[in-house]
């Protein structure tokens, strides 16, 4: 594990996710947070998975190289990171540069989707409270409530947004949980045909 923090966990796909590939993790809905009845589904923003910590930031992995297109994100992080408690990680989407989707609506430069105190992911309510203290927005919520059906969850997504252009959604246990339980507490749905980008995406999106 890096001194900065671990690599962000891989998020498994929901069973009905059409964007799953052979290399992706697949989740079992029957085994998803079986002892919880409080869930939050959020819009899956199309950016660069980025982690902020007290001493700086990194994208996806703490061992990843710094990239020129991250300059705006580094400038934002410089004003936020000193206020992050020691040993905490603030994870979200870097939206300062277009990725696969060019949003027609305004989006923030960075949107928080989880905050970690060591290996504990904070509850959604605590995540929103800390994000507000750090003056950062969270990703949009499309559903909050008791355990949904997969059809009901997808209906909430369709009612919230344009399913032809938004990437998908993420559902999580609304309570706190440990890193080792991540694969059974967080899952995603990604639309079919969503562009998978490589290291050259910033140049293509300029």
UniProtKB/TrEMBL annotation:
InterPro entries: Cell-binding_unc_protein (IPR052732), RNA_ligase_dom_REL/Rnl2 (IPR021122). Residues 1-22 are annotated as: Disordered. SUPFAM superfamilies: DNA ligase/mRNA capping enzyme, catalytic domain. Residues 38-190 form the RNA ligase domain. This is RNA ligase domain-containing protein. It comes from Streptomyces nanshensis.
